[in-house]
Amino acid sequence: MAKNKLDWQTGDANDGRAPLSLENVHVAYNTRRGKVRAIRGVTLDLHAGESLALIGESGSGKSTLGLAIVRLLPDTAETAPGVITYRRNGREVDVLQLKPGELREFRWSECAMVFQAALNAFNPVLKVWAQALDTAKAHGWHDKDAVRRRLVELLEFVQLDPKRVIDAYPHELSGGMRQRVLIALSLLLNPQILILDEPTTALDIITQRTIIKLLRELKEDQGFTMIFISHDLAIAAELADRVATMYAGRVVELGASDDIFYRPRHPYTLGLIRAVPTVTGGFEQLFSIPGSPPDLVDLPKGCKFHPRCAFATERCKQEEPELEEVGPGHTAACWHWHEVEAELRRNPLHRGALNLTDVIAVDVEVA
Amino acid sequence: MAPIIEVRNLTKQFGKGKERVTAVDSVSFAIEPGETVCLVGESGCGKSTTGRMVAGLLEATSGEVLFEGKNIKQLDSAAFRRYRQTVQIIHQDPYSSLNPTQTISQILTAPLLRHNKVKNRVAAEARALEILEVVDLTPARDVIAKYPHQLSGGQRQRVAVARALTVDPKFIVADEAVSMVDVSIRVSILTMLARLKKEFDVTFLFITHDLALAKYFAWEGRITVMYLGRIVEDGPTQRLINDPRHPYTQALLSAVPEADPELAQHKRQIELRGAEIPSLLALPPGCTFHPRCPYFVPGRCDAAVPALEALDVGGRVACPVRRQERVSLLV
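The joint structure predicted for all components is written out below.
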């Protein structure tokens, strides 16, 4: 199929400034048990054209952060202090201060969120076409023909047959098709930023691959700015330029994908990588992280990871470390990152080039 | 040694008339005591249905399940009881598989008493504490008084394993047993299960959609790949993972996302002719993979269901067209 070059805005209009900047963002939920501190001071820039993966386990705050950016948090959520600055065409707004009308404009046409392809991401009684038209109308776009042309173009872009899909109800589509439709719908209003929450979770492996390919196209050919939220390290490895590891509501490590996967400096990132096997290649011993994630109502003092950390000392129990530079463009929040580095020298991760040459060598030998 | 579990031409159909689907179609395999076998495949391939028939939770439409060489339908009541105790199943969802109104103590002592594993309540409680130690739920005294909702997902799954252990099983069907558990905790549960293999001679049928987990858990064992109700390939894990022969296995392994950026960049991309899995209600004739298979031979692949044939490199494959062809998974 011929690839359509869609005329969406790239971030160039911002004079190289990040289209999205988070500054000391906090989110807390008020519950009967007390205050759930889901996000505790996240500061990061999303660069134009990059794809950033937020990884972490359940309760790490990654989904809350995504929802905070598009202001879809429930009413029980408090979002102070913190600033989320969004920039486009030299204009700048604080997302957290937007009024209802402005907010509606911001969502979808500036920043769109794609949820897990579960059925409940759709209105079950609307056909795909009605869904799209509803969205367009809500944003003041009433030219039916133009909306239809745009939808057809987008459905073709995500490699669906518009004739088959446009008049289908969500339940008539397979999981993979629903995820494609959601991605197509998210692009309807030319957003600058796309946030994808677990974009491949619950899909079959071969379907996952087709979605990954599609997202790579959006990233590489269309220069889209994207945030991936996933518990699955593989999604980060497949799609991200940069990776942010989250734990107990904070970014504990941030760096280029290769730095995170091959030169992690935070014990939690290292723990995650050592807990996840690859498929192709030889056997690698895996290790789990002891204990379980902390209770967000009753967080431990000091570094929130210290009860599970092999490197923890008295200092970690008292003082919470801030992100500090551990390499070019690579930050980690750990008092003992030098020791993590030393540990990796002693026990290297059998990954990347090393692992790969092993596999290729074996292959050539047998063939 | 005789297989502890064997299935022959096992078939399961659901529904009636036009709605009738064949979820499992003439599946045959044998598992020796001490082996670890992983059943892998995508949703709808029949792996869980097969596991449930092996565990006796579901009756086969045709074909048979043999326990220590005897058809489970022909066992006398004492032998059937022994089968039901020896073969246990652990389900995927530790939130719905544990009774929320019972304490861990009640959950564990009920089967101990029911199957006369212990003399009285006091002994049952003591045994329950021992079992909690085995599954690393410590301090056991604290855990035993709790209700399931007071435990994390990983801890609940350990309780589910503990419950299976109350009746001294020798064969455990683990159906997506760690799929709902957080990444950092998964490995510790797999390690615990691997310890049961060694210490209690438990044989495992490990059912998963996650090839990376299958590889890790059954590195010394075997993997069986199912597609739309049929086995398409099986063999020793180390061979199957790095030298798959069935085009579906190759497609699956090349498609699986890798948690390693460099590896991810170097995976071969196998283009399929069709992206969608056919519906079980309208299965294609012949090899059910043929509408998607890149090596489709018209008149051959769509004419007859290919039989599983033994491979000289170990295992079986149901593809007469490609069985001798090796495909490198990396470029």
